[in-house]
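User: Predict the complex with MF3.
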Amino acid sequence: MKIFYKTKAEIEKLRVANLIVADILDLLEEHCRPGVSTAELNELAAKALKKAGAESAFLGYSNPPYPAVLCTSVNEVVVHGIPRRDVVLKDGDIIGLDFGAFKDGFCGDSARTVMVGKVPERVRRLVEATRRALDLAIEKCVVGNRLQDIGWAVQSYVEPLGYAVVRKFVGHGIGRAMHEDPQVPNFGEPNKGIKLKPGLVLAIEPMVNAGTADVEVLEDGWTAVTRDRQPSAHFEHSVAITEDRPIVLSRR
Ligand code: MF3
Ligand code: CO
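Assistant: Here is the predicted structure with MF3 placed in the model:
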């Protein structure tokens, strides 16, 4: 495991990349309305990326190569939903938008779950709990805490609400590469793992299921769905640990 601790200048570049991601997610969120296909959202994202003079962190990633610049994960899709012309948003859906970009050699990565029209109370509560879990996790990003304090913050908040934390996918360090060490699970035990130090930059991304934690990857090699087909929510921020306080790089 090789952790790259970032200088202030490097964190500044990560900030630039992440703000591009944040602004494009804002734009996409406005377009999450009934009748819009996830392919259209992907096209919007690709255009905005070009305009920003940035490159996709997702397109062509891994094997099979990821085929789009955006992940669009609707309802029971946990993460890595591939945009499709025939997946059209409807009232009451939730959609996870996950977007990553490189600018000036550094990567930005962030995700959010958006509610389309009037979402059933039970699903809205899941989305809001997941958002809150990420905020609680970010609050743990202070020098002297340990890595698993982050996952514990997520797990200890959502499990008593009756939700399950996805274990198959985790957050990650981020820098010149989208995925750097260390892995950042959304579960853990308090006061365990490496000590958090200034210059550590983490993409923290809780995935929380309404039903059980089990996920299954579909034939396309990417789309991860809940095994019980109950809804799932996902939020992600890239966060820099500094001497005094966490800086949420992907939030304006
Ligand atoms: N934000 C996700 C991650 O951190 C999405 C990457 S999947 C990709 O892993 F294939 F689209 F790149
Ligand atoms: Co990520």
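The mean pLDDT is 98.
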